[in-house]
Write a sequence for this structure.
């Protein structure tokens, strides 16, 4: 009799454990299993408790490329949003054949209009220097961009002009996927993620468990980044190949396990 009791007790414990495990799988369908990565890819997740998990090559430094716009949102995004900035991009190099045309901050971020970001950055630079001087402006710039410029910019010196390399068009701004995710996890980046979500929700989103995912792809000279978020969790993927935005997002969905409809 004693045996039967202990057996049924452990069976009910087992069932409770199975139900708990099933619950976890339902809540975190993407991360309950090891992501299936291709060679050279790096993938990190940031859960609601601010815990980071990484798989694949997350240590190699990569140029930020188009992801540099996220750093610019931290530098000036709130200002630009409140000023309702706009720009008429007629630069064929920015978007063939005739440029992006009229863009506001949301559109410039979504469509990667470097021309607009560069114009706003230099216009802001002039304003900053007039208001507070070069020294303080440089200090603020280094506070925000410090994690990405490494030793490629002297610790002291003049305030640099904002050239395309400040928009990620070279190797000036770099981060390993791991370091980039640490920046994303920093409470100081919360406003950037909120702004990115606001700009991107409704475009390139999927609905899973009524949670909308947003995706921000960004090409760089060594491959393609994709940042994704759903309001509570975030994921960062580096693909060591140039991809179109659409393909990069599809790849992220596949790694997250939300690709199949
Ligand atoms: Zn443009």
């Amino acid at each position: 009799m004693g045996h039967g009791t202990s057996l049924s007790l452990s069976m009910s414990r087992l069932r409770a454990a199975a139900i708990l495990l099933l619950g976890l799988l339902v809540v975190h369908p993407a991360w309950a299993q090891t992501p299936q990565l291709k060679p050279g890819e790096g993938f990190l997740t940031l859960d609601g408790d601010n815990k980071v998990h990484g798989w694949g090559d997350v240590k190699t430094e990569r140029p930020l490329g188009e992801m540099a716009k996220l750093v610019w949102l931290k530098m000036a995004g709130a200002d630009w949003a409140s000023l309702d900035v706009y720009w008429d991009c007629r630069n064929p190099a920015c978007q063939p054949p005739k440029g992006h045309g009229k863009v506001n901050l949301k559109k410039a971020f979504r469509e990667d209009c470097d021309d607009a970001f560069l114009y706003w950055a230099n216009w802001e630079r002039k304003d900053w220097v007039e208001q507070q001087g070069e020294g303080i402006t440089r200090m603020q710039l280094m506070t925000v961009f410090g994690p990405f410029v490494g030793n490629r910019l002297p610790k002291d010196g003049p305030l640099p002009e904002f050239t395309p390399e400040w928009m990620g068009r070279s190797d000036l701004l770099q981060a390993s996927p791991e370091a980039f995710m640490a920046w994303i996890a920093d409470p100081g980046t919360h406003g950037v993620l909120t702004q990115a979500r606001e700009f991107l929700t409704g475009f390139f989103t999927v609905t899973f468990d009524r949670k909308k995912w947003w995706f921000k792809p960004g090409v760089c000279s060594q491959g393609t980044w994709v940042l994704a978020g759903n309001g509570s969790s975030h994921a960062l993927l580096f693909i060591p190949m140039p991809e179109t935005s659409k393909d990069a997002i599809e790849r992220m969905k596949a790694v997250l396990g939300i690709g199949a409809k």
